[in-house]
């Protein structure tokens, strides 16, 4: 029975989602720099960064068979990747570009099975449409500080919920981790999740 997983990310959203599975989550950020990569489209970029995060985290893992998970999310606006904004001005600019438009959120993950060396790499994509946003609406949201650590300058599980007109696909992909795919990947690698009466340890 799987009780623990190592998350190669400092994302509180991914941490919360894994905890919701009844797992004890060890946070071990990889330190990988998500710099732009020429020649890759946004979906490929998410997969590239997820794989590199895993590779960066592997040397520091303990050889105890605990699975290691790395993930990356990229917002795709007409084929242009939108990562995390560098400041409030860039966040406002991203939100203005997304206003009244469809975009696609790609989240890729790589799951390593510990000592066996097996790994699963997957990617999920979800289409999101924003309402037309007023300038003051964008300014108010940016002022919360919420957009600054999120791809595309918004977090769908937070105050940006009011910006979203519709979603076509998996909500958790937009949040930063396609949870059902991760669960199925764990099972394929031979891990069984805790039962409902076995909560995660603090």
Helix content range of the residues, please? 25-40%
SSE ordering = EHEHEEHEEHEHH
First-last Cα distance: 17 Å
Unreliable runs: none
Describe this structure in words.
This protein has 202 residues and is α/β, with parallel strands linked by helices. The protein has one domain (4-188): Maf protein, CATH 3.90.950. Helix content is 29%, strand content 24%. The protein is built from 6 helices and 7 strands. It has helices spanning 12-19, 42-57, 88-98, 135-143, 171-175, 179-188, and strands spanning 4-7, 24-27, 68-77, 80-82, 102-112, 119-130, 164-168. Strands 1, 2, 3, 4, 5, 6 and 7 form a 7-stranded mixed sheet that branches. Helix 3 packs across helix 4 (135-143). The longest helix has 16 residues, at 42-57. The radius of gyration is 17 Å and the shape is globular. The two termini are 17 Å apart.
Characteristic key phrases:
202 residues, alpha/beta, Maf protein, seven-stranded mixed β-sheet, 29% helix, 24% strand
Q: Can you summarize this structure?
A:
The chain is of the alpha/beta class and 202 residues long.
Secondary structure blueprint with pairings:
Layout lengths: L3 E4 L4 H8 L4 E4 L14 H16 L10 E10 L2 E3 L5 H11 L3 E11 L6 E12 L4 H9 L20 E5 L2 H5 L3 H10 L14
Parallel strand pairs: 1-2, 1-3
Antiparallel strand pairs: 3-4, 3-5, 5-6, 6-7
Helix pairs in contact: 3-4
